[in-house]
Design brief:
- This protein is mostly helical.
- It has 30 helices and eight strands.
- Helix 24 (about 500-510) packs across helix 26 (about 550-565).
- It is globular, with a radius of gyration of 26 Å.
């Protein structure tokens, strides 16, 4: 059996290496990225089977094989872009074949359950979990598996209902596999402890690889171009750059790029660009996110250990490390990984302030400094996290009280006030953000306001991303439902739903005081974003809910502990049986779901591509003015500009560009036209 398992492992490795290294020329025909991905899935499935076989858990290995291939088959027929949806009408023979894979998954699970005694399994499940609660779990998971907005945008209520039914059925199939796994010999034979450094390293390596090969170390939405531009400005020792010559302005016009009073800047909050500037100075801005992700895992482990103990802390750290949501956010150039890190840093410092009087006030002040920088980065997030933490410290915390809350608040005010001085410098008013000024000028006054109103939102709407003019209570509710579906899909990438353990917490755990605190954070984040007109789930999951990521991981760990407590009858190490299920779910998320996201969505997402950067690397454009013909998003070229327009100047081709005026504005510069040779993925 060990030899058989070793052969399966080597076969799996060969499949993965072949899918990555065999070129289309070697293969003799063009291949789609998603097909190459499915070959790697076969490799992951074979390796999972081989490991189990080598450990004498052959049946578990068979189930693991079908768990991987069946879950991947579902992803193969899922539309990956804005609102993931299964293709109910297969497009080709390969999509038809996925139905057979899923059917085989269900059949194998039923055979194993039948062999174990289906009646006995149902009786045990009813005694320990309750069949009603299990049914509710499956129904809720199936409901949350279907995003709502895509169907509402086209008035497709029947299609939505059909997808919900299919989602429930597929959830049941995957749940049966997990149930069958719980009835056979586990490949895990005992308890294992890993230092918190291990999941931190996993988080760093995974997000770094994703940054290199999927995000290609560059922006993929307009916001990231703006963050990078402002980071370059800060790295150059200034808050704004001089406005470019009028002749170049049409070629530099881009979302969130603004000019006022002879100054040029990105209309973003300064917190994240200031941190990103450290990466710009070192030449590795793409490294900041993975470093923050790894540190966040260490902080998450330390916080969970203080609040609930080592077992919960290990679970939290593992889920953070295996979360496709956290990895993708860290691999991008978005702000949210910084806000997560700062919140966890503040919480860790506050918890350590209870260790004794020595250094306590210093830690509280430092916690305030960290929390205040969230306000400088994302003001609403700063108000939520800082306000809730301050309230907890004032009223509930054992190490709290008015005096200590005041010290914490002083730290918050010190760093938080940075944004007021920045606003004053850029807009002329401490309470007028550059983003508000930009939106008011380019959309309409008050278009980006918080709350309900008929004039809120972009003129003409953003299609399915903003269903109706203005913002209302009804639209807020629709946004919440859609964001919950996005969270269910992207947080962990599990075939039984990312929120499986959160639902387990709600169904089978008795909340304690800390649990209620985490619930309060989640509820406040959801409620606060309910009143904001835009609910972004099209890029990296429900990113406006990212502040609630740690509380969600924490409650997931508490939900898992509730399941452990319901399987007590095989000795003190009985829970190793379901520990194997947890590990394989994490393996699926990080080795199957995340690569699927990488190749079907993040790679060259939104028309961003590295062709301009690669062509410029040989020096052919050095010192020239390059007018770039539109092929993909123009941010792929404009991101290369120096804010002071030194070196090569990249301009988007625009009708208003006058080459004679450009030559006069930049004497001695050669002007060339260039079209990137980019054909898309």
């Amino acid at each position: 059996m060990r030899g058989f398992g070793a052969a399966a492992i080597w076969l799996g490795l060969a499949l993965i290496v072949g899918a990555i290294l065999v070129t289309d020329e070697m293969y003799g025909r063009p291949s789609a990225l998603i097909d190459r991905w499915y070959f790697t899935v076969g490799g992951v499935a074979a390796i999972a089977f081989g490991i189990c076989a080598r450990r004498g858990a052959l049946v578990f290995g068979v189930l693991a094989f079908f768990l991987v291939t069946g879950g991947a088959a579902q992803l193969y027929i899922t539309e990956p872009e804005w609102f993931p949806a299964i293709h109910l009408s297969p497009k080709n023979w390969k999509e038809w074949a996925t139905g057979g894979v899923i059917a085989a998954e269900a059949l194998v699970a039923l055979l194993v359950l039948g062999r174990a005694g289906l009646g006995r399994v149902l009786q045990t499940a009813n005694e320990r979990l309750g069949l009603g609660q299990i049914a509710l779990f499956i129904l809720m998971t199936g409901f949350l598996s279907v995003p709502l907005l895509g169907y509402m945008a086209r008035g497709a209520a029947a299609a939505y209902a059909a997808h919900v039914v299919v989602g429930i059925a597929l959830t049941l199939v995957h749940f049966l596999v997990f149930a069958a796994m719980s009835q056979v010999k586990s490949p895990i034979s005992g308890l294992y402890r890993l230092t918190a450094l291990a999941p931190a390293v996993v988080a760093f390596v995974v997000s770094l690889l994703l940054s290199f090969y999927a995000f290609e170390r560059m922006p993929h939405v307009e916001d990231e171009v703006a963050y990078l531009f402002q980071a370059k400005t800060f790295a150059g020792g200034a808050l704004t750059a001089p406005a470019p010559p009028e002749a170049a302005a049409p070629g530099l016009d881009y979302y969130l790029f603004d000019q006022t009073g002879g100054r040029w800047y990105a209309a973003t909050a300064p917190g994240w660009p200031a941190v990103l500037a450290l990466g710009v100075l070192a030449g590795v801005p793409w490294l900041i996110g993975p470093v923050l992700a790894a540190l966040s895992v260490l902080l998450g482990h330390a916080i969970a250990r203080r609040l609930s103990g080592r077992d919960e802390a290990d679970l939290v750290a593992m889920m953070m490390a295996a979360s496709p949501w956290l990895a993708a956010m860290a691999a991008s150039l978005m702000t949210h990984t910084l806000t997560l890190f700062l919140m966890l840093l503040a919480w860790w410092l506050i918890l350590r302030a209870g260790d004794g009087p020595r250094g306590a006030l210093r830690r509280l002040f430092l916690a305030g400094l960290a929390m205040g920088w969230i306000f400088v980065t994302r003001p609403l997030d700063g108000l939520i996290a800082g306000g809730l933490t301050g309230l907890w410290l004032l009223v509930l915390a054992p190490m709290g009280g008015p005096g200590r809350a005041l010290i914490y608040g002083a730290g918050c005010a010190l760093t938080g006030s940075v944004v007021l001085f920045y606003n004053q410098h850029v807009t002329g008013s401490a309470f007028l953000q550059p983003l508000t000024l930009y939106i008011d000028r380019h959309w309409a006054p008050g278009a980006n306001a918080y709350g309900f109103g008929a004039e809120i939102g972009p003129p003409g709407g953003w299609g399915a991303l903003d269903l109706w003019p203005g913002h209302s209570a009804t639209e807020g509710l629709v946004n919440v439902i859609n964001l919950a579906a996005s969270l269910e899909f992207d947080m962990m990438g599990w075939s039984v739903g990312s929120l499986a353990l959160v639902l387990a917490f709600l169904l089978w755990q008795r909340p304690n005081r800390t649990d209620w605190a985490m619930i309060a954070v989640i509820a406040t984040v959801v409620l606060a974003m309910y009143f904001y007109w835009f609910a972004d789930s099209y890029y990296i999951g429900p990113r406006y809910w990212f502040l609630a990521a740690f509380p969600l991981f924490y409650l997931s760990a508490r939900g898992y502990m509730a399941l452990r407590e319901r399987f007590p009858d095989r000795g003190e190490e009985a829970h190793v049986q379901i520990d194997a299920l947890f590990w394989y779910a994490c393996i699926f998320g990080i080795c199957v779901f995340l690569p699927w996201r990488a190749v079907t969505k993040y790679y060259e997402y939104n028309g961003f591509h590295p062709t301009v950067r690669e062509d410029a690397a040989d020096g052919r454009f050095d010192g020239k003015i390059v007018i770039v013909e539109r092929n993909g998003d123009m941010g792929s070229a404009l991101m290369l500009n120096d804010p002071w327009l030194g070196g090569t100047i990249w301009l988007a081709d625009a009708e208003a560009l006058d080459e004679a005026a450009l030559a006069a504005a930049f004497p001695g510069r050669e002007i060339v036209r260039y079209r990137p040779d980019w054909t898309g993925r």
